[in-house]
Design goal:
The complex is a heterodimer of chains A (about 210) and B (about 260). With about 210 residues, chain A is mainly alpha-helical. In chain A, α1 (about 5-30) packs across α2 and α2 (about 35-65) crosses α3 (about 75-90). Chain A has helices at about 5-30, 35-65, 75-90, 95-125, 135-150, 150-155, 160-195. The longest helix of chain A is centred in the C-terminal third of the chain and has 38 residues, at about 160-195. With about 260 residues, chain B is α/β, with parallel strands linked by helices. Chain B folds into two domains: about 10-215, Rossmann fold (3-Layer(aba) Sandwich), CATH 3.40.50; about 220-259. Chain B is about 50% helix and about 15% strand. Chain B has helices at about 10-20, 35-60, 75-85, 110-120, 120-125, 160-165, 185-190, 200-210, 215-259, and strands at about 30-35, 65-70, 100-105, 150-155, 175-180, 195-200. Chain B has a six-stranded parallel beta sheet. In chain B, α4 (about 110-120) runs parallel beside α6 and α8 (about 200-210) packs across α9. The N and C termini of chain B lie far apart (about 55 Å). The chains are: A mainly alpha (about 210), B alpha/beta (about 260). At the A-B interface, α2, α4, α5, α6 and α7 of A face α2, α4, α7 and α9 of B.
Chain lengths: ~210, ~260
């Protein structure tokens, strides 16, 4: 690696490590909290530039595919025109922008999410074709939880809300606690690895 | 077809309501709406009831409301639309003035970073409000800059861990309007007292509507939810029962052949 590349890599790593260490230092000692709060604001500005970059990349990618008449280019054209129309209306004429969000974007998202409910049911149905004890437990738990959430469960039997609540509180809550601990430990390890130089994918090096 | 099934209000929803009612007079509330358009079907009605509750408390007890979005831009559009189409026409802003009683900060991209910024130094991340007014020109924001100026933190959406990481340990109550799919993630937080209260999906929203009296779509959807869940259970049970019957009758006929 050339000297300039090494210097660049070192500066990148320092730019990653120093703000993080400073924020941790300020949190646990109380010293420099005002500056730490300002440092926390920098990523918000960077996120804005990331959005601009995303928009430019989106327009450039789809425009290139349309100009070159690649396979399925009409869909790229629809995506591009939809984006430009929505983007333009947000600044030019808000009522049309509101109409697009309410009657097109929201409706399509709701339809997509509505599909997930039936997908889960068919997923369970296919899952129950395997006759194992674990699937039996899954089925019983699913029934209790579904009848806990819906008002009809209390009417069928008062046992459903009691068991459903217990399933949510004890087994599920315990599993979530373990999951949270694993995530927290993983995040600490990931940061330590990045500081020590073992993780380089974020700086453009090999992972 | 309406069934009119009775809805029992659980302690979860009652705690949520009581936490909001316990805000001191003149207190400031930070509400982060991180819902998407798709989540609005589940939680939107509860959010509308919440806004009506908060604005009515602003009218009666001078609460100050700060609305923001940190995760995706959908939330800020939904907040603005709710205020324009439900709150203002419903008379919940009578006697109130934008900038003095409520402010919409809009979308502050960065999620956890923005969440942290909202409770440490609002001015570091929000230079203007949703309508482009510089924040220093908004009368209400002169006295609100960090968590010490707030009385309640709240959010709505799919997630809970991100808000817990940035908002706990600050000495302020935190409430969550949470989707039923991720409500299990709230258990560790609420058991430790870090999360003060939460609403459990559309069922929780319907209970909250019943408590506040601002009934809406969530209440109407409870009958549909009951029927959909019964359908789901039938889809699970009927094939399994038929299989068991086949298994038992198959064994009986095999035993009969052997004899």
């Amino acid at each position: 690696m050339s000297a300039s590349a090494k210097t660049w890599r070192t500066l990148t790593v320092l730019a990653f490590i120093l703000p993080g260490l400073f924020i941790l230092f300020a949190r646990y000692t109380g010293i420099g909290q005002f500056m730490a709060a300002r440092v926390v604001g920098w990523p918000v500005t960077l996120a804005t530039f990331a959005i601009v970059l995303g928009v430019v990349t989106f327009v450039r990618t789809h425009s290139t595919l349309v100009i070159k008449r690649e396979k399925y280019w009409p869909y790229n054209l629809v995506a591009l025109l939809s984006f430009l129309l929505t983007f333009g209306m947000a600044f030019a004429y808000k009522p049309v922008y509101d109409y697009i969000l309410t009657n097109v974007v929201q409706t399509l998202q709701i339809a997509f999410m509505g599909f997930i409910g039936f997908y889960n049911l068919t997923f369970f149905f296919h899952g129950t074709r395997r006759r194992t004890p674990e699937v039996g437990v899954l089925m019983v738990v699913s029934i209790f939880v579904m009848l806990w959430m819906a008002p009809i469960g209390e009417i069928i039997s008062p046992i459903f809300p009691i068991v459903g609540q217990w399933l949510n509180d004890i087994p599920s809550g315990g599993a979530m606690r373990g999951f949270l601990i694993c995530v927290a430990v993983g995040m600490i390890l990931q940061y330590v690895r990045s500081v020590l130089g073992y993780e380089r994918a974020w700086s453009g090096g090999a992972a | 077809m309406p069934l009119g099934l009775p809805l029992k209000v659980t302690p979860l929803a009652q705690n949520f309501y009581k936490t909001i009612e316990a805000i001191p007079d003149g207190g400031a509330v930070l509400w982060v709406n991180d819902q998407g358009f798709a989540t609005w079907v589940e939680l939107g009605s509860g959010e509308i009831a919440l806004y009506k509750h908060l604005f009515s408390l602003a009218q009666k007890r001078g609460l100050r409301l700060v609305f923001a979005t940190t995760s995706s831009a959908d939330g800020t559009v939904l907040t603005d639309r709710t205020i324009r189409e439900e709150i203002i026409p419903g008379g919940f802003t009578k006697g109130l003035k934008y900038g003095e009683n409520w402010v919409q900060l809009g979308w502050l991209p960065g999620w956890e970073t923005s969440l942290r910024g909202l409770v440490t130094d609002v001015r570091a991340i929000a230079r203007t409000d949703y309508f482009g007014t510089p924040i220093d020109q908004i009368p209400m924001m002169k006295n609100i800059n960090s968590v010490k100026d707030l009385s309640l933190l709240g959010n709505s959406g799919y997630y809970v861990d991100e808000y817990g990481r940035q908002w706990t340990g600050l000495g302020k109550p935190w409430i969550d309007l949470l989707s039923a799919t991720t409500v299990a993630m709230a258990k560790p937080w609420i058991e430790k007292g870090l999360l003060t209260a939460y609403l459990n999906g559309q069922r929780g929203c319907a209970e909250y509507e019943a408590i506040t009296g601002y009934r809406g779509f969530a209440t109407a959807a409870m009958d549909a939810q009951s029927l959909a869940h019964v359908l789901g259970i039938l889809i699970l049970l009927v094939p399994s029962t038929l299989y068991l019957v086949k298994l038992v009758t198959g064994r009986k006929s095999a035993n009969g052949d052997k004899k």
